[in-house]
């Protein structure tokens, strides 16, 4: 099978973004009002894919690990939580404004883009030195030198084309709002910028009510909010997004071993959901967050380059100790084997549901050309893992008469309680196959006149377009086996 001539990375990504909109995966938020920057809505197919990904993560974490349980904490938390976690004082990005265009940028992103240009021009040493210089200045909170770096590199605003920059300032990424109905009584609270703190503040609740023994983990999926200065690359960087996080509570001193273990477990998960090994890599952090003593990203090669989809952090006892200090309530565990109390250490795995969604969509998007001359055919299809596909099976009677719709409906009724199935009788069978390919349905079931005689149907496989005749009596088992989440779990 011949592959289509490689389009440029940018055009591929543009095609993926428009495909996502046209086929009901992702829409710009409140589009009729021209949208809201960096906020997106999931459509009828997107929500199915995202739910399937979240389900595979949830079950892999909780059901497949005897010592990991889940919670669902509220988005709003007591404001002191964010003082204790360090987010009020330290969760910021360095920003710079261009005085001519009045546009605001992240200073570190401007410098990273400049370094990427050096890379592209075959000057990797220059790129490396520039990034290292920036990391040193940011580490030392020397924002004046960050601004000087931007000016000395002659970085200009893409809108005004000038280097007329303001000074660099830190910009806190948390959104705040008010609880309470009367303005004077209202208390400022934050929309959580990470789900992790909901886990930390519930550490003892879960440990005691579940009689959990260290080492154990608490997992959570939920919304997080960040006022990102640079919002771009579609759902990669959003202001409202979803995280799938797990805090693994361990004995102090065991963090290196668990950090390495969770790195491998999580990489396996990304491979198991179908992301190819050559498009995944680890990237060690040069600059550590305020809470971590080791951190690594799992990066996926998007059409716009290798970018973080998951972070694995050794968070020491930073969070629990800090909550102990601020709340004045002990956050300790009595270890019966060691016969002593301690504040547990934590290894965190934190993956963005929207980023895994985008990686899965980019990986699935396939433009294929087969045959030559008059036989040349082009098709676009989404090759999702069957367990992740939004729609698993389409039931298609080849005509609307002769009793075929009735038989097809019976098959549909028999399957719909076990998987997401659609029934379609409009248009030619070819057009219907194409429609299902475009949303990534792995199996189409054609019901034809022979089906009435031999009680068999044809399964058409999305990726190969190969057709296979099977008995209707065997169909359900064949499909259940093929779309089972077990196919993913076997690889973990
Ligand atoms: N609790 C640790 C934490 O929040 P992080 O590296 O800031 O760490 C973890 O975020 C993951 O959340 C990232 O790897 C990414 O997948 C996702 N994420 C972070 N910011 C995001 C954004 N603005 N839009 C979409 N996903 C985001």
Can you characterise this structure?
The chain is of the alpha+beta class and 492 residues long. It has 2 domains: 2-74 and 191-361, Bira Bifunctional Protein, Domain 2 (BirA Bifunctional Protein, domain 2, 2-Layer Sandwich); 384-489, Anticodon-binding domain (Rossmann fold), CATH 3.40.50.800. The chain contains 17 helices and 23 strands. It has helices spanning 9-22, 44-63, 80-84, 87-90, 107-120, 124-139, 143-152, 196-200, 203-209, 255-272, 318-327, 353-364, 404-415, 429-439, 449-454, 472-483, 486-489; strands at 26-28, 40-42, 68-70, 92-97, 104-106, 169-172, 176-179, 187-190, 216-225, 240-250, 280-284, 294-302, 305-316, 333-335, 340-342, 345-352, 365-370, 377-382, 393-397, 421-423, 443-447, 456-461, 467-471. The strands form 7 sheets. Strands 3-9-10-16-13-12-11 form a 7-stranded mixed beta sheet. The model is unreliable at 1-7 (pLDDT under 50). The structure holds glycyl-adenosine-5'-phosphate. Residues 194, 196, 226, 228, 237-238, 241, 243, 245, 308-311, 348, 350-352, 354-355 line the site of glycyl-adenosine-5'-phosphate.
């Amino acid at each position: 099978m011949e592959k289509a001539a490689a389009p440029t990375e940018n055009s591929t990504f543009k095609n993926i973004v428009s495909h996502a909109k046209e086929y009901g995966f992702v829409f710009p938020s409140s589009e009729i009002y021209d949208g809201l920057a960096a906020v997106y809505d999931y459509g009828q197919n997107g929500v199915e894919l995202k739910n399937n990904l979240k389900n595979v993560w949830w079950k892999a974490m909780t059901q497949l690990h005897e010592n990991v349980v889940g919670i669902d904490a509220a988005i709003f938390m007591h404001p002191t939580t964010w003082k204790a976690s360090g987010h009020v004082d330290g969760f910021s990005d360095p920003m710079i404004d261009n005085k001519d265009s009045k546009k605001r940028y992240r200073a570190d992103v401007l410098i990273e883009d400049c370094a990427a240009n050096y890379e592209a021009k075959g000057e990797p040493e220059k790129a490396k030195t520039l990034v290292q210089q920036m990391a040193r200045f940011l580490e030392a909170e020397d924002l004046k030198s960050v601004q000087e770096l931007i000016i000395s590199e002659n970085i200009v605003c893409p809108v005004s084309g000038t280097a007329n920059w303001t000074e660099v300032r830190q910009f806190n990424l948390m959104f705040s709002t008010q609880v309470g109905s009367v303005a004077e009584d209202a208390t400022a609270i934050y929309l959580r910028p990470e789900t992790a703190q909901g886990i930390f503040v519930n550490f003892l609740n879960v440990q005691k009510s579940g009689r959990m023994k260290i080492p154990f983990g608490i997992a959570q999926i939920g919304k997080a909010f960040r006022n990102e200065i640079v919002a771009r690359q579609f759902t990669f960087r959003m202001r409202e997004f979803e995280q799938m996080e797990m805090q693994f509570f361990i004995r102090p001193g065991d963090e290196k071993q668990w950090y390495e273990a969770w790195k491998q477990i999580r990489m396996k998960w990304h491979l198991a959901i179908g992301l190819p090994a050559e498009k995944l890599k680890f990237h060690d952090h040069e600059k550590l967050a305020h809470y971590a003593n080791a951190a690594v990203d799992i990066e996926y090669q998007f059409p716009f380059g290798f970018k973080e989809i998951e972070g694995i952090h050794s968070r020491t006892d930073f969070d629990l100790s800090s909550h102990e200090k601020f709340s004045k309530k002990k956050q300790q565990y009595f270890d019966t084997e060691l016969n002593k109390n301690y504040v547990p250490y934590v290894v965190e795995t934190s993956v963005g549901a929207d980023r895994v969604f985008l990686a899965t969509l980019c990986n699935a998007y396939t433009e294929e050309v087969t045959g030559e001359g008059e036989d040349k055919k082009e098709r676009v299809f989404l090759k999702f893992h069957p367990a992740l596909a939004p729609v698993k099976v389409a039931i298609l009677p080849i005509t609307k008469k002769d009793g075929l719709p009735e038989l097809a409906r019976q098959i549909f009724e028999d399957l719909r309680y076990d998987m997401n199935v659609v029934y379609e009788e409009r248009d030619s069978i070819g057009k219907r196959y194409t429609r299902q390919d475009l949303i990534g349905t792995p199996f189409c079931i054609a019901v034809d006149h022979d089906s009435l005689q031999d009680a068999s149907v044809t399964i058409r496989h999305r990726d190969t377009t190969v057709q296979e005749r099977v008995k209707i009596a065997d169909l359900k088992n064949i499909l259940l086996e093929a779309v089972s989440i077990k196919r993913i779990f076997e690889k973990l």
